[in-house]
């Protein structure tokens, strides 16, 4: 065999191998590489979307936390206001009740004073009658002189 024929045979075999590879082997390999590149790109895009979603969720969580803290602060302020209002209402009710009790006590004292005055009038009238009896040395009939005693009571 001649080197030229071998070289030509090898070149022809190499050309057939190249054609076979380009026709049957290379397209599935390029398709697989393209699909893999597409999956990698999709995975990177999904990772980026996930990262953005995570950042958005973090912002929403922070906003919710701030809103909850603000609401809790408002609730505390309202509770303190209501507590102060209840204390003031209780103080006012206690003042009103105390004033009522004082007014009742004053009315009762006034009634006791009137009863005491009436009792003293009766005692003074009795003493006046007894004194007059001793002075006159005769007995004064209280039932006969009831009108006189009533007028003396009224004057006292």
Q: Could you walk me through the main structural features you see in this protein, from its secondary elements to its overall organization?
A:
The chain is an all-alpha fold and 156 residues long. Helices cover 92% and strands 0% of the residues. It has helices spanning 3-136, 146-155. The longest helix is centred in the middle third of the chain and has 134 residues, at 3-136. It is rod-shaped and about 190 Å long. Belongs to the ATPase B chain family.
Strand residue percentage:
under 5%
Shape: rod-shaped
In DSSP terms (H or I, runs of 4 or more residues), the helix count works out at 2
> How many structural domains does the protein architecture include?
1
The biggest sheet, with number of strands, parallel, antiparallel or mixed sense and barrel status, is: none
Transmembrane segments: 6-26
Family: Belongs to the ATPase B chain family.
Organism: Rivihabitans pingtungensis
Pfam families: ATP-synt_B (PF00430)
Any descriptors?
156 residues; 2 helices; 92% helix; ATP_synth_F0_bsu_bac; ATP_synth_B-like_membr_sf; transport; transmembrane helix
């Amino acid at each position: 065999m001649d080197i030229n024929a071998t070289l030509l045979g090898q070149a022809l075999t190499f050309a057939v191998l190249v054609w076979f590879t380009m026709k049957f082997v290379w397209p599935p390999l390029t398709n697989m590489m393209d699909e893999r590149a597409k999956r990698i790109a999709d995975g990177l895009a999904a990772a980026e979307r996930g990262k953005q979603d995570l950042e958005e969720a973090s912002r929403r969580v922070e906003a919710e936390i701030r809103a909850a803290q603000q609401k809790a602060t408002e609730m505390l302020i309202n509770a303190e206001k209501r507590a102060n209002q209840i204390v003031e209402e209780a103080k006012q009710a206690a003042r009103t009740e105390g004033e009522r009790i004082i007014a009742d006590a004053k009315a009762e004292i006034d009634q006791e004073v009137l009863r005491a005055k009436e009792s003293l009038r009766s005692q003074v009238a009795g003493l006046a009658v007894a004194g007059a009896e001793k002075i006159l040395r005769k007995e004064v009939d209280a039932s006969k002189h009831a009108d006189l005693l009533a007028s003396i009571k009224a004057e006292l």
